[in-house]
Amino acid sequence: MRIIITGATGFVGGEVVRQAIANERITQAFVLTRKPLPEDISKSEKVTVVEHKDFSTWPPEILEQLAGAEGCVWAIGGRATQFPDLETAKKVSIDYTLAAANAFVSELAPKLPETQKFRFVFCSGKFAEWDQEKNLKAMKDTRRIKGQVEKGLCDLADANKDKFEVWAVRPGGIVKKHASLMNILTANTIGVIEVDHLAKAMLKIVLDGYSDRIVESNALLKV
User: Fold this and answer.
1) What sign does the CA torsion over 147, 151, 157, 160 have?
2) Which of 83, 115, 192, 206 would you call most buried, defined as having the most Cβ atoms within 10 angstroms of its Cβ?
3) Contacts of 20 (CB under 8 A, 6+ apart)
């Protein structure tokens, strides 16, 4: 399968690329990036680096470089507090994601075989909230942003059932691979997952699909 991967310079996206390189079922990874990539990623024969400076627009010359892609693992975003301000958090997390998904639906999905749907896996977060008016006490901005993206992607999939399908994974927290015993014990209680497990799970979903659109943290640990 040929897939698009974003967030490759980050903690999760970088691991997704490395696991994709190691996965025999992934034949090509189009890695979208605004920054130079580590050599262990950029020099892989499987990786096609596509430099793209503005993820809010998808001009033909960028989409042409993604021709043949059958799915996407989207790992751009994070907690709202990781951004300079809320406006930037929304732009990166919501606007970029939905702009890309719409472009993939309109330009990439129609070029696949008639019975094949373009698959999109979004790295969301535990407690993502679709109801933007709900009173939230903890991590309200992050939860609302993740929820808005999830809903936008699901609405897009519902409007394009013949050519686009989406999944949102909701890790409770992400730790380095080979985590300590304490981290592993914590994972069993609050849904924390090791980054390599998360990356493998997202790749498995983009390859094989999954029964539920929203993959909650406890289910994610079993993928």
Assistant:
1) negative
2) 206
3) 3, 5, 26, 29, 46, 73, 203
Helix axes 96-103, 140-159, angle to 10 degrees: 10
Does residue 177 carry a pLDDT above 70?
yes
Structure tokens at 85: 């301000």
Give strand pairing partners of 30: 4, 48
Distances 128 to 148, 150, 206, 212, 221 between C-alpha atoms, Å: 8, 8, 21, 15, 17
- 84-93 long-range Cβ contacts below 8 angstroms, 24+ apart: 86/141, 89/141, 89/142, 89/145, 90/145, 91/56, 92/55, 93/145, 93/146, 93/149
Predicted pLDDT of residue 184 = 56
Residues whose CB falls within 8 Å of the CB of residue 180, separated by 6 or more in sequence, listed in order:
none
10 and 75 Cβ atoms separated by less than 8 Å: yes
pLDDT band at 39; cut points 50, 70, 90: confident
User: Within its chain, how far is the Cα of 81 from the centroid?
Assistant: 19
Residue 59 structure tokens = 């001009």
H or E element at residue 206: helix 195-208
Mean pLDDT of 124-143: 88
Question: Could you tell me if 20 and 2 are in contact, meaning their C-beta atoms sit under 8 angstroms apart?
Answer: no
**Cβ neighbours of residue 110 closer than 8 Å, sequence gap 6 or more:** 163
Cα 183 from Cα 175, distance rounded (Å): 8
The token pair that represents 156 in the structure block: 């897009």
DSSP letter (8 states) at residue 104: I
First to last CA, the chain: 19
